Amino acid sequence: KRCSASRLISVQRITSPVELVRRDMMRDKYEMQLRKLHAEMIEMGTMIEQAIETAIKALVAQDTELAKKAIEADDAIDHQEREIENLCLKLFLTQQPVAGDMRNISAALKMVTDMERIGDHASDISELTLCMAGTPYIKKLEHVQQMAKETIVMLVSSIEAYVNADEKKAKSVI
Q: Pick from 29, 38, 30: which is nearest to 165 by CA?
């Protein structure tokens, strides 16, 4: 009796030591790229944190020069977003990640968009500072300062949760 093609059991190919070394080197390169992705996310988070602090200081002090610096910082944040997106796409195209690795890279793509928007908001606050220059505030801006501090805490915590793959910390941010 002949076996049908669908019943053939494929024999696993024996992997040579050279192939094993090549796979390990590829995995090491991939892990190095993931570490770079995490470092770039942390860098962008730091840039945004500084933009928020600068924008709020400028708003409270009605400092137009400081406000202009916060607006200029938005270009660097936008550039960092593009760099991270390019790195993520490069990882998708060259490494063909699966399961957890794919979720990790996809999460970075989603986060970086939201992070960039936070940078845009800091820039927008600075633009309002320029528009309101010289006009006295009718109320102290204590709550704005507190909201900015909370925003920074949430930003830093979310990046830490992402980099450390800490689900509990991620949920605490929400």
A: 38
